[in-house]
Amino acid sequence: MEQGQEKIHIDGRWQLEDFGVFSKQYTQSYSLIYSLANNPFETELERRGFRFEYSKYPWRGGFSVINFYYSLYARIPESHRPEVKSIRYASPGAIELSTVVEVSAQLGAIITTIAFSLDKVHDLYNNIQKGIRERKLGRIEVAVKELQLDQAQNEWVTASIAELAKAMKVSDELLGTLDVRTDGNKLVQLKVLLSLYRRVEPIAELVDREMVKFEEEKKQLEQGH
Question: Residue 144 above 50 pLDDT?
Answer without folding.
Answer: no
